[in-house]
Amino acid sequence: MIDAVFGECLSKTPGSLLIKTQGGIAFRILVPVSYHSKITVGQSVFLYTVYRIRDDEAYLYGFKTEKEIDVFKKLIAVSGVGGKTALAVLSAYSIEEITHIFLTRDDHRISAIPGIGKKTAQRMILELSGGLSTPSTAESTGSPMSDELISALVNLGFQEKKSREAVAKLVSASDEGLQFEVLFKLALKEVSKR
Fold it and tell me: What CA–CA distance (Å, rounded) separates 101 from 169?
């Protein structure tokens, strides 16, 4: 069992990190897309992890907080919800937003995430509504931020064309000083409308 990984970030993409431990082993860890702007290459990183085997493939999911890993485990306990779907929920919404969504039984916001249909969203709401406590461009612009936003949306399952259109609209209308995480949430809302 791999409960946690501590090491240096060798590389990152929206949704995954390559972490090298002091023992010389490097792990590819799937993480929420929001981590892309919070972790830099060369930085020391500690992640709580969940190791899952599905069919003939193994996946290692990583989270910065115990609350995130707790929510992830509750999500994958729902019938029909796998690790990548649970990770998409944690990429799309903060812990506070997820808690609010389940407390208010807002299945529309859950079913807006690619890979989650209406029935699965309703099953998630039914099983988790009481289980989560309230916490105390049509073309690439050449901008690395735009390309990363498009990549993050495509990794969540949105079509590339719709992702590019949403990001192009967002980037042309937004303040250039906004961070990746803020822009990603805005882009997610925009592409969900399409």
Answer: 27
